[in-house]
Amino acid sequence: MKIAIPLAMGQLTAHFGHCQEFAFVNVADGAIKDTEKIVPPPHEPGVLPKWLADHGVTHVIAGGMGGRAQQLLNASNIEVVTGAPVEDPEVLVKAWLAKTLETGENACGHDENHICDH
């Protein structure tokens, strides 16, 4: 399993499409094996879901994500978790694996007037 987490300054960022880099956390046998950080391609609608799928990502833990990005990720069999708190990627993955990750509202889904194209 490979879990992608959008980052800004080393921690989860609320806006999926505008992150500085992604942490790719590789998990095997219920434990973190390694983490790598990769700079994504420039943001354009639809680019990141394909890029993540091409990197073998199976799950995304995000703060906020627009509906189109969620649909594209789901179409690539990538499970999406939104509403995660700002935290280090390994902390988020450990909590998710332990089923103790507390999530709030999707930062891109709380206000119908707020436009998230990512």
TrEMBL record:
Provenance organism: Desulfoluna spongiiphila
A Pfam family assignment: Nitro_FeMo-Co
Protein name: Predicted Fe-Mo cluster-binding protein, NifX family
Domain Dinitrogenase iron-molybdenum cofactor biosynthesis: start-end pairs: 11-97
InterPro entries for this protein: Di-Nase_FeMo-co_biosynth, DiNase_FeMo-co_biosyn_sf, MTH1175_dom
Domain of life: Bacteria
